[in-house]
Amino acid sequence: MTDTPLVEARGLTKVYPARGSSAEFRAVDGIDFALRRGEAFGFLGPNGAGKSTTMRMISATSPITGGTLRVLGFDPVAQGPQVRARLGVVPQDDCLDRELTVRENLYIYGRYFGLRRAVIRERAESLLDFAQLRDKADEQVEVLSGGMRRRLTIARSLINEPEILLLDEPTTGLDPQARHVLWDRLFRLKQDGVTLILTTHYMDEAEQLCDRLVVMDGGRIVAQGTPRELIAAHTTREVLELRFTDQDTAAEKLRASALCGDGGRLEVLPDRVMVYADDGEAALAAVHALRLSPLTALVRRASLEDVFLTLTGRSLID
């Protein structure tokens, strides 16, 4: 990685007029970030946080309202075609031509970039291997599984050999096995020098893929850093997850106890109670000392999901 920003935003703002009133909706509210070449950078946050809007501004498909944004040295508003020619975009929805074959999808997309037929054929053959779709090359997209379609969408986005690949919720709706296969493809891209910018709802995906990330809420950045830095800065070392028959009564007793002092914290979710503490086993012993008998109890290391609960007060998939 180099220190020269590949993407740089200062006071980046996106405002939409509110329907039926004079008020405005600030989808992105004055955010700053800088992305270096060769890293995987993530935008995380609950729905409506401003992640996808920021991605659309980076991809030069939605003009900025305020602040400054530079992508590959270009102004995406004034120089949109130059930006888009050097990007690959993987949208939330696959948007594939389902009545065409896998190979035909790659070919047609390459023609959008004005690539010569011989170049497209050569790159398509390589991308079929990359996406593990060689044996499906002449099958219609309609018959592919969800994981295969997602891999094809990523392969298609690489036909122009982009410097930056933007991925909006790349594994939403996939089963665990398909997600891990897709992660492997993305690791390979990063090793090949492609810079990744992604949004995701999945904490494990962010920890696996992102070198750095920002957490957004209400259009603003509320935290940024590496996954390890965020966990260390915003939550305790361990988390105790508890489930009770009468959760409300148990939560009331826990709030009144010493567990919420000395850096400890309590989070009550619809299906469980989370006790944040540096020593989870000691916290569990304190729960039993209160004469509370949880149905289940789990002590685990803190994760990015706990960071989101701390910063936004709700789970990442709200």
Describe what you observe in this structure:
- Belongs to the ABC transporter superfamily.
- The protein is α/β, with parallel strands linked by helices and 318 residues long.
- The chain has two domains: 5-226, P-loop containing nucleotide triphosphate hydrolases (Rossmann fold), CATH 3.40.50.300; 236-301, YebC, transcriptional regulation domain (Alpha-Beta Plaits, 2-Layer Sandwich), CATH 3.30.70.980.
- Helix content is 34%, strand content 27%.
- The protein contains eleven helices and 13 strands.
- The strands form three sheets. It has a six-stranded mixed β-sheet with strand order 5-6-7-3-8-9, with helices on both faces.
- Strand 11 and strand 12 (273-277) form a beta hairpin.
- Helix 3 (102-112) crosses helix 4 (117-130) and helix 3 packs parallel to helix 5 (146-157).
- The radius of gyration is 23 Å and the shape is globular.
- The mean pLDDT is 91.
What's a concise summary of this model?
The protein has 318 residues and is α/β, with parallel strands linked by helices. It has helices at residues 51-58, 80-84, 102-112, 117-130, 146-157, 176-191, 203-209, 227-234, 247-255, 280-289, 304-312, and strands spanning 5-17, 24-36, 40-44, 66-71, 87-90, 164-168, 195-200, 212-217, 220-225, 238-243, 265-268, 273-277, 296-301.
